[in-house]
Amino acid sequence: MTEFFTTALLLTIFGSLLITSASLSRTLERVGIPVALLFLFLGMLAGEQGIGGIAFEDYRFSFIVGTIALVLIVFDGGFNTTYASIREGIRPALLLATVGVLLTAALTAVFARAIGLSWAEAVLLGAVVSSTDAATVFAVMRGSKLSLQRRVGTTLELESGLNDAVAVLLTIGATQAVATGEVPGVSALWGVPWQMAVGSLTGLALGRLGRWLLVRVRISTGGLYAVVTMGLALFSFGIATLLGGSGFLSVFATASVLGNGRIPYQSGLRRIHDAMAWLSQVAMFLMLGFLVFPSRILSVALPGVLLALFLAFVARPIAVAACLLPFRFPAKEVGYIGWVGLRGAVPIILATYPVLSGVSGAERVFDIVFVLVVVNSLVPGATIRRVTKWLDLDVPPAAELHATLEITSMGEIDGDLLLFHIDSSVLACDGAIRDLHLPEGASIALIVRGSKLLAARGPTILRADDQVYVFSQHEDRALVTLIFGQPKDV
């Protein structure tokens, strides 16, 4: 009975933390505090030195669970990234994810040594905090519905999905150097292009295989499609890593191929993976909060704060400016990308690696990284909305959907259900349905006007701000978009 009681207590605490975190998310967004920061503090509060009293100091388990959570978060990001966005932002993002990470690591390590840390601690810190965090970037860019100019937003998202390969290599190399006293040679840097090449090729191959599997194999119920896609995400990470490639890049590539292709149950999969990404983020930050002991934080608060401010105001901006120079970004875009160097779960998870390797002083480095992540959540994290508006980098948000309609198909179907927001400039606005001359293979399925659902009849007039669902054959899509404008994502 003791085991049942303990399990029930843990589930009660964890469930209440999930409810509290989700319930307060909207309030925190209004005041500018990232939701991830709340998760970390609730984890601390429930930990051994908090009111929850949960004794937890299992770095290995945290590393495994955190990695799985990041896989699901990166998969959701890739699943919602279009090929057009990737083509537009891949070159600057790739340079930021490689040269930018190396520059950030070097500058941070030098500053850490200058404020009194040993070279071993400084090198470890520089490696661990060198990359931006996909979980935090995706949460801010999409979860808070921040409407950025596409090139800026895409560059930030792609960078966060690509730069883990370099950060992982740096962390492993720094840990081995501190543990053995032998500095890795320059040849170790060749591991970066190898990891990226293997990761991207593995991900693209598994994405195409996954699309074939989802279309060709009969699956008995809709819920199992999400099981297949989550299995593909985990398999993609695992096989790419075993082949010596970047597992996270492989996951991102796999998800992009799936999200940009025609697969059954696609809109349902988007919602499921969005929910899984949020659950993963909540659970991951709560668990990482359990690892933090407030009694140890006070002794590293000053170096942690100084390093966070240096990273935000000096290291990240310098690295970004150097990397974006060849691409002629306007100064305000360079400044913005330099400011939005969000750190979150990735540095904390990477900081567990030296601890697991038994490196002397690794726990102190872990505590400093935690302080750095907390400060980074406030500066620049809490200022992103204001800075976006100040630099005039936001775009008008898409019209809010009042209702959604979809066709759930267990196989490939010949046709699309498209959603259009009727703008005053499109041909269909203020026209009767019977006068639109739709192609023979197309028809309006439903009209949403405010909170009302309207039947699509011949004399019905389409008004500005209406949501219109149109069924169309693939070959008629160009003509339909000419009448209604560009379709919206459901």
Automatic annotation (TrEMBL):
<keyword id="KW-0630">Potassium</keyword>
<keyword id="KW-0406">Ion transport</keyword>
<keyword id="KW-0813">Transport</keyword>
<dbReference type="GO" id="GO:0005886">
    <property type="term" value="C:plasma membrane"/>
</dbReference>
<feature type="domain" description="RCK C-terminal">
    <location>
        <begin position="405"/>
        <end position="486"/>
    </location>
</feature>
<feature type="transmembrane region" description="Helical">
    <location>
        <begin position="61"/>
        <end position="81"/>
    </location>
</feature>
<keyword id="KW-1003">Cell membrane</keyword>
<dbReference type="Pfam" id="PF00999">
    <property type="entry name" value="Na_H_Exchanger"/>
</dbReference>
<feature type="transmembrane region" description="Helical">
    <location>
        <begin position="275"/>
        <end position="293"/>
    </location>
</feature>
<dbReference type="GO" id="GO:1902600">
    <property type="term" value="P:proton transmembrane transport"/>
</dbReference>
<dbReference type="InterPro" id="IPR006037">
    <property type="entry name" value="RCK_C"/>
</dbReference>
<dbReference type="GO" id="GO:0015297">
    <property type="term" value="F:antiporter activity"/>
</dbReference>
<feature type="transmembrane region" description="Helical">
    <location>
        <begin position="93"/>
        <end position="116"/>
    </location>
</feature>
<keyword id="KW-0633">Potassium transport</keyword>
<dbReference type="GO" id="GO:0006813">
    <property type="term" value="P:potassium ion transport"/>
</dbReference>
<feature type="transmembrane region" description="Helical">
    <location>
        <begin position="6"/>
        <end position="24"/>
    </location>
</feature>
<feature type="transmembrane region" description="Helical">
    <location>
        <begin position="31"/>
        <end position="55"/>
    </location>
</feature>
<feature type="transmembrane region" description="Helical">
    <location>
        <begin position="222"/>
        <end position="240"/>
    </location>
</feature>
<feature type="transmembrane region" description="Helical">
    <location>
        <begin position="305"/>
        <end position="327"/>
    </location>
</feature>
<feature type="transmembrane region" description="Helical">
    <location>
        <begin position="122"/>
        <end position="141"/>
    </location>
</feature>
<dbReference type="InterPro" id="IPR038770">
    <property type="entry name" value="Na+/solute_symporter_sf"/>
</dbReference>
<dbReference type="GO" id="GO:0008324">
    <property type="term" value="F:monoatomic cation transmembrane transporter activity"/>
</dbReference>
<keyword id="KW-0050">Antiport</keyword>
<dbReference type="InterPro" id="IPR036721">
    <property type="entry name" value="RCK_C_sf"/>
</dbReference>
<protein>
    <submittedName>
        <fullName>K(+)/H(+) antiporter NhaP</fullName>
    </submittedName>
</protein>
<feature type="transmembrane region" description="Helical">
    <location>
        <begin position="334"/>
        <end position="353"/>
    </location>
</feature>
<keyword id="KW-1133">Transmembrane helix</keyword>
<keyword id="KW-0812">Transmembrane</keyword>
<keyword id="KW-0472">Membrane</keyword>
<dbReference type="InterPro" id="IPR006153">
    <property type="entry name" value="Cation/H_exchanger_TM"/>
</dbReference>
